[in-house]
Write a structure and sequence with these properties.
By secondary structure, the chain is an alpha/beta fold. It is built from 11 helices and 12 strands. The two termini are 24 Å apart. It holds the Pfam family ABC_tran.
Length: 281
């Protein structure tokens, strides 16, 4: 989906980015630039480094090699609250806090701007109110978060990320555990907010069809390295299904929107994958 949002210079730039654990490398020298205004989808199998990349780029992990620059500054050297004013990260999951209302949870996103004492002040600031309104949860503000459905809760968590008022938004599997209706609702909300707020968005997605429809750029990771990078129409191919996702399948085109549509047929065993790497073009 090309939204027509103007793209600017790189606001996030990974240079030789590496990270791992003893005996288990996760990222192996990733070079990646993300321009202002882009909506980028990260795809790949579990363990390929997608979530790790987001945490490194948000300053939550320290790389073992290379660096990530936010507007030219090494994020690993920035104070935590400074980084949080530039990048908001919606984690894949978050522990529930019994008794917390929607309003109280969303106000947690104001920590970077207001500090721990400022968060205790009564009343919402303008940014919190806008975040509640932008995702359509103002009417639920005084409801307990625990009383919400999974889809409603994810919208509230998105509002909390927006309350950081950062120009860059990282979303780690924002549609996990949601039914199809709520997956589409969350993704369409992200696309709308990206345009309205002029955000740069990077989101980890497992569904390649969603990535092809909603992102204007797809970055595929395989074993800690970039295997493909480009617009969906160029990146989403039978070769990508085999090499990156380990499945044999077909790729068509949506009759209405024109974006690529994947039809996975069956998983490839390692020998099939090697043959596909040599013969699929």
């Amino acid at each position: 989906m090309n939204s027509g949002v103007p793209k600017g210079p790189d606001v996030v730039r990974a240079e030789g980015l590496a990270f791992g654990y003893p005996g288990r490398p996760v990222l192996r020298g990733v070079d990646l630039g993300i321009r202002a205004g882009e909506l980028v989808a990260l795809i790949g199998l579990n363990g390929c480094g997608k979530s790790t990349f987001l945490k490194l780029a948000a300053g939550l992990l320290t790389p073992s090699g290379g660096r990530v620059l936010l507007d030219g500054d090494d994020v690993a050297r920035l104070p935590r609250r400074t980084a949080a004013r530039r990048v908001a990260l919606l984690h894949q999951s978050a522990p529930s806090v019994p008794g917390l209302t929607v309003r109280q949870l969303v106000r947690q996103g104001r920590y970077a701007a207001r500090g721990p004492l400022g968060m205790l002040r009564e009343g919402d600031d303008e940014v919190t109110s806008r975040a509640l309104a932008d995702v359509g949860v103002t009417a639920w503000a005084d409801r307990p978060v625990d009383a919400l459905s999974g889809g409603e809760r994810q919208r509230v968590r998105l509002a909390m990320a927006l309350a950081q008022d950062a120009p860059v938004l990282f979303l780690d599997e924002p549609t996990t555990y949601l039914d199809l209706r709520h997956q589409l609702e969350v993704l369409q909300t992200v696309v709308r907010l990206r345009a309205e707020r002029r955000l740069t968005v990077v989101m980890v997605l497992h569904d390649l069809n969603h990535a092809a429809r909603f992102a204007d750029r797809i970055v595929a990771l395989r074993e800690g390295r970039i295997a493909a990078d480009g617009p969906p129409a160029e990146v989403v191919t039978r070769h990508l299904l085999a090499e990156v996702l380990g499945v044999d399948g077909r790729v068509g085109t949506d009759d209405v929107g024109g974006w690529p549509v994947c039809y996975p047929d069956h998983p490839l065993d390692p020998l099939q994958l090697l043959r596909n790497e040599n013969h699929i073009h």
